Amino acid sequence: MNIVKKKRRNLFFGLVGLSLAVLMISALYLEEQKKQMKTELVFQESEVLNLPVIERSEELIEVPMKVNAEKVISFYASDKEENELMQAVSEYQGVWRPSQSVCYSFSNKVFEVTAMVSGKVSEIYQDELMGKCVEVDCGNGLVITYQSLSNVNVILNQTVRQFDLIGLAGENSYHSDLGVHAQITAHLNGELVDPEKLIHSKVSELN
Predict the structure, then answer these.
(1) Where are the alpha helices (DSSP H) in the chain?
(2) For every one of its 207 residues, what pLDDT tens digit does the chain have, with 9 covering 90 and above?
(3) Taking the CB of residue 33, how many other CB atoms lie within 10 A of it?
(4) pTM value surpassing 0.85
């Protein structure tokens, strides 16, 4: 009987010892797994932090409409060809004057006038000759004015993105013979510039 009890006691302590050994091995294994996961996490974070920064490319200045409007008045510049100069003068009250803007027409139909480039609306006004006008400060000394609008869809100090709706083409007194059209004037550092020469340029690269 004592022999049986002794065997049972030895078996019990043996099982207890085996269980403790299993628990210790499991604890060591889990600890090792935690260390490995921590190392992998640090490595991944390091990879993320060292990723190259990809800058968004700067937008290029585009035409002020989505429709295929026709240029009916060009900006006057002495270096243009004779046939171009003929399209760069306009008559008002019997006097022919060089054009300081570019005018677009869409078969005398109303069309949407859109932002040529992103900027901030710096002025909105009604001009006696040019009609409703919206001035947008595009940065780096560039200011674009959208004229001859029948309707204005922006407010003062509003930030506009490229292709946002500025307004609708309309009529004005200065170019009454053109009917419905949009008129674009541009200033760079206070000087008049040809709006067409700005197209496909970056604002940051303008002099």
Answers:
(1) 2-49, 82-86, 195-198
(2) 445 445 445 544 454 455 545 445 555 555 665 556 544 444 344 344 454 444 457 899 999 999 999 999 999 998 888 888 889 998 899 999 999 999 999 999 999 999 999 999 999 999 999 999 999 999 999 999 999 999 999 999 999 999 999 999 999 999 999 999 999 999 999 999 999 999 999 999 997
(3) 10
(4) no
- Residues 169 and 150: beta-carbon distance below 8 Å: yes
Rounded Cα gap, residues 115 and 162, in angstroms: 5
Total residues belonging to the chain:
207
Closest CA to 147 of 176, 181, 183: 183
Q: Are 159 and 120 in contact (CB under 8 A)?
A: yes
Q: Return the structure tokens found at 175.
A: 């170019």
Report the alpha-carbon distance of residue 199 to residue 197 in Å, rounded.
6
Which of 62, 59, 72 is closest to 169 using CA atoms?
Answer: 72
Sequence-distant (≥ 6) Cβ neighbours of residue 75 within 8 angstroms: 88, 99, 100, 101, 102, 193, 194, 195, 196
Nearest to 67 by CA among 117, 118, 104: 104
Tokens of 5: 């009890």
- The torsion angles phi and psi of 33, rounded to 5 degrees, stand at -65, -40
